Amino acid sequence: NPLDLVQFCQQLVEDMQFIDNGLHGIELILSQPSLSACMDEKLLRHILTNLLSNALKYSPAGMAVQLELCDRQNLAIFHVKDRGIGIPPEDLPHLFEPFQRCRNVGTISGTGMGLAIVKKCVEIHGGEISVQSEVSDEKRPGGTTLTVILPRFSLNNLTPNLNDQFSESVEAKLPKKK
Ligand code: ATP
Ligand code: MG
């Protein structure tokens, strides 16, 4: 059964806003009123919740983040964009390696596993992930954009168990659906 990516993103943004407790605000940018895909919903949720959590975590309170959905041929393209602390150029080559944390995290806590697992999930889905970032300083605001490109109709419907575990831990924090 096909998934409407627009509806999916709307619900996801609503859920993430709830978890973020109104600290930042999340803007959803859409290029279509609907976009169908045959994707593993849990895997996609895992990918996007991780990227959005990072965008929120590494941005000061009050600074909105963005989720943009576009399409090109049979691809879905997701941009998760923030105007937060940014990633130092020396750390970019190791960003997707396990337990890697960038030198400018300061007191922001994390395990450094999120992006390593996200990259695996994207690859399982036959997609690609890339990053573009500039460090923020007093003179210039920077920020980070993570881009995920996924085939909209891949026949590969593998769901690793780790994804179920993650989805459950996020779902536990959400309000009960009516
Ligand atoms: P967790 O495992 O809880 O997600 P984490 O957020 O530290 O911990 P990753 O999500 O894998 O780990 O990210 C790796 C590192 O990349 C982070 O520690 C941080 O230094 C940097 N990083 C990731 N996303 C951003 C972002 N949007 N802005 C700035 N730095 C980021
Ligand atoms: Mg993270």
Short description:
It comes from Laspinema palackyanum D2a. The chain has 178 residues and is α+β, with helices and mostly antiparallel strands. The protein is built from four helices and seven strands, in the order βαββαββαββα.
Give a structural overview.
There is one protein chain. The chain is built from four helices and seven strands; from the N terminus they run βαββαββαββα. The protein has helices at 5-20, 41-57, 114-124, 161-171, and strands at 3-4, 26-30, 36-37, 65-72, 75-82, 128-134, 143-151. Strands 2-4-5-7-6 form a five-stranded mixed beta sheet, with helices on one face. Strands 1-3 form a two-stranded antiparallel sheet. The longest helix is centred in the first third of the chain and has 17 residues, at 41-57. It binds adenosine-5'-triphosphate and magnesium ion. Keywords: Coiled coil, Kinase, Phosphoprotein, Transferase, Two-component regulatory system. This is histidine kinase.
